[in-house]
């Protein structure tokens, strides 16, 4: 993910694997960024993502920051629409899966964020 | 419960000319876990049952695991600490016995609580290691993992008599799953085995993960067996092969062919046990049925192969692994201490591993002949050091190496991808 985003011309601060919630909130609220990306593949993303994004949204500084999640979100393959919806309801701006199409869409999504920021 | 030594079970299977086959199965619910173990036991193959633990339990987040159990959220493994002991006791009742040993697989750098629970339950067969469950997985310092693993060996050894003879399998033959040259995989596996032995274990298995070149893998497995015989005197030990641990083919045909190759490799090179992967590997946690299909497929392929006593061409894997093991052992009489010093000096250095205690000087690549080779050996004490003079490996090359197996085995028309795209704007 870091390579991909860097290659698309953006600067990345990578917090590494299995980031504890506190550390994530501190890092995100402490230094401004234009987009927060969560990558998850172990199948706990539906639960962990929901918890994490609620923590982030609770910070006044992060109320309007775009936050997205992608990867293998659950343990049963493609996520059901209601699972995706509950992630969106919890505060994610967008939700991606683990397919090449998702990666491509994420690329154009990045462009749209960049365009908005530079305006 | 009467349970025979794990090593005895493996040795009996070998004597009967059968490869022991084992899944990587793990489910959150105790009922489903029991059904899965029972299906493994019934499968037409000589099997060992597996309880794979979930990520929360691996990280010590037992409360998160408990919350998932109450809310009904699905877990990627069995939360053996969050479930109370009685639940697991009942889950296993009538399943594990002389004909069916059960191993617990986890992935935790600091597994004391896990081992305490295992010993309470008479589950004395497990796996891991102070290096292999620390560097690829966690943010825990190596020194802490090493101390914790020493205590865990103690917990296991003290439980002698409560279940089968305590057994540990090294995960060191896998490391990141991909792109680590075999000499270093073999050395790490042997060193972790020696760490277990020094800390009182009398029954050990040494792992190695299938890579891309069949010839290179055969040579590596033979080197591992030679080094096991040399460095593990006086204990019971065997070699276990893991079916390919990197990016897995997405097609059924591709996954089947890759697993068949692993089963045949195990038999040819004299490994005694194989841990399989299923056709669902690339996408999600496999079902019980998919696990049984993989077990039976591997057992059939193994039955059609024979051990090859011939010498695989020697390209120096044994010499490289031996040089690393000896140099590391020279650093300290205490093997845990030696491992720690070895990482500090770069005598052990896992390519592409981002853990802060890994030197990160050694780099590798997958050659056009499918052999893993060093680009730069950093400070590894190998007989043939190499310096990287070219430019660093680019993202595209790295991805080519990581994906080669998947692409090769999926050459047939791709099945429709399971995942679909959803991209919805919040505002
Ligand atoms: C290698 C591997 C490992 C290695 C990891 C080594 C390392 N540090 O890199 C080891 C052996 C350590 C490992 C461990 C585990 N693993 Co693993 N692992 C794999 C494997 C084989 C390949 C992963 C890989 O290298 N991917 C390469 C990258 C490029 O692909 P990717 O991560 O999938 O990312 C792509 C997409 O998902 C997507 N994407 C990802 N994030 C994002 C984010 C955004 C915003 C977008 C748009 C897209 C996106 O884009 C990426 C590029 O295409 C996969 C199976 C497979 N895919 O073949 C299983 C797999 C991911 N592992 C799995 C599991 C469960 C585990 C364990 C929990 C063990 C267990 N219980 O079985 C532990 C994890 C411990 C933990 N802390 O949680 C499961 C997850 C199941 C699920 N989601 O349903 C898989 C799918 C295997 C399986 N079928 O069971 N694993």
Describe the structure.
The complex is a heterodimer of chains A (119) and B (427). Chain A starts with a helix and ends with a helix. The longest helix of chain A is centred in the last third of the chain and has 19 residues, at 100-118. Chain A has a 3-stranded parallel beta sheet with strand order 1-2-3, covered by helices on one side. Chain A has a single domain, classed as Rossmann fold. Helix content of chain A is 49%, strand content 10%. Chain A has 119 residues and is mostly helical. By secondary structure, chain B is of the alpha/beta class. Chain B has 2 domains: 6-303, TIM Barrel, CATH 3.20.20; 395-426, no CATH class. Helices cover 42% and strands 11% of the residues of chain B. Chain B has helices spanning 6-15, 30-42, 55-58, 62-71, 85-92, 112-120, 142-158, 182-198, 214-231, 252-268, 288-303, 317-329, 335-345, 395-409; strands at 20-22, 49-52, 102-105, 125-128, 167-170, 203-209, 236-242, 273-275, 363-366, 372-376. In chain B, the strands form 3 sheets. In chain B, strands 1-8-7-6-5-4 form a 6-stranded parallel beta sheet, with helices on both faces. In chain B, strands 2-3 form a two-stranded parallel ribbon. A two-stranded antiparallel sheet of chain B has the order 9-10. Chain B is globular. The relative contact order of chain B is 0.12. The model of chain B is unreliable at 412-427 (pLDDT under 50). Chain A binds chain B through residues 3, 7, 16-18, 42-44, 46-47, 72, 74-79, 81, 84, 88, 91-102, 105, 109, and chain B through 54-56, 59, 64, 68, 71, 73-76, 137-139, 280, 283-285, 354, 395, 417-427. The structure holds cobalamin (B12). Cobalamin sits between chains B (24, 26, 52, 55, 58, 76-77, 107, 136-137, 176-177, 245-248, 280-282, 284-285) and A (1, 18, 37, 39, 41-43, 68, 70-72, 75, 96, 98, 102-103, 106).
């Amino acid at each position: 993910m870091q390579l991909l985003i860097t290659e698309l011309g953006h600067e990345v601060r990578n917090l590494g694997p299995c980031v504890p919630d506190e550390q994530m909130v501190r890092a995100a609220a402490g230094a401004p960024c234009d987009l927060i990306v969560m990558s998850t593949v172990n199948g706990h993303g539906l639960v962990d993502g929901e918890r994490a994004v609620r923590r982030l949204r609770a910070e006044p500084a992060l109320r309007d920051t775009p936050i997205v999640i992608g990867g293998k979100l659950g343990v049963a393959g493609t996520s059901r629409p209601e699972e995706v919806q509950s992630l969106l309801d919890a505060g994610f701006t967008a939700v991606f899966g683990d397919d090449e199409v998702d990666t491509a869409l994420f690329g154009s999504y990045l462009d749209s964020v960049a365009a908005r920021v530079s305006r | 419960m009467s349970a025979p030594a794990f090593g005895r079970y493996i040795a009996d299977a070998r004597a009967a000319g059968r490869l022991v086959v084992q899944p990587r199965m793990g489910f959150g619910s105790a009922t489903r876990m029991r059904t899965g173990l029972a299906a493994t036991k019934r499968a037409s193959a000589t099997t060992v049952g597996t309880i794979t633990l979930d990520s929360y339990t691996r990280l010590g987040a037992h409360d998160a695991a408990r919350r998932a159990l109450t809310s009904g959220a699905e877990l990627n493994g069995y939360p053996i600490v969050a479930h109370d002991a009685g639940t697991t006791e009942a889950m296993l009742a009538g399943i594990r016995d002389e004909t069916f040993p059960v191993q617990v697989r986890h992935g935790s750098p600091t597994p004391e609580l896990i081992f305490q629970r295992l010993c309470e339950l008479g589950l004395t067969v497990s796996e891991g290691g102070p290096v292999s469950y620390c560097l690829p997985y966690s943010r825990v310092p190596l020194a802490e993992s090493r101390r914790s693993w020493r205590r865990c060996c103690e917990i296991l050894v003290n439980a002698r008599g409560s279940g089968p003879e305590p057994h540990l399998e090294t995960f060191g033959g896998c490391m990141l799953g991909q792109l680590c040259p075999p000499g270093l995989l073999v050395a790490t596996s042997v060193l972790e085995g020696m760490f277990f032995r020094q800390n009182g274990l009398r029954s050990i298995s040494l792992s190695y993960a299938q890579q891309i070149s069949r010839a290179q893998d055969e040579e590596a497995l033979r080197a591992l067996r030679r080094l096991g015989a040399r460095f593990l005197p006086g204990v019971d030990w065997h070699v276990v092969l893991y079916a390919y641990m990197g990016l897995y083919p997405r097609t059924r045909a591709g996954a089947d062919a890759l697993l068949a190759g692993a089963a045949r490799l195990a038999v040819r090179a004299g490994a005694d046990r194989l841990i399989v992967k299923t056709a669902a590997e690339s996408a999600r946690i496999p079902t019980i049925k998919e696990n049984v299909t993989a077990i039976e497929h591997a057992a059939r392929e193994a039955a059609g192969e024979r051990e090859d006593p011939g010498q695989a061409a020697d390209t120096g894997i044994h010499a490289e692994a031996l040089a690393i093991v000896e140099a590391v052992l020279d650093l300290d009489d205490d093997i845990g201490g030696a491992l720690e010093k070895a990482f500090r000096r770069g005598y052990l250095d896992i390519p592409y591993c981002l853990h802060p205690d890994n030197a990160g000087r050694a780099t590798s690549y997958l050659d056009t002949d499918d052999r893993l080779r060093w680009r730069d050996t950093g400070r590894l004490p190998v007989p043939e050091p190499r310096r990287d003079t070219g430019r660093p490996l680019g993202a595209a090359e790295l991805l080519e190496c990581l994906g080669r197996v998947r692409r090769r085995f999926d050459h047939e028309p791709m099945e429709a991808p399971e995942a679909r795209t959803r991209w919805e704007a919040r505002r």
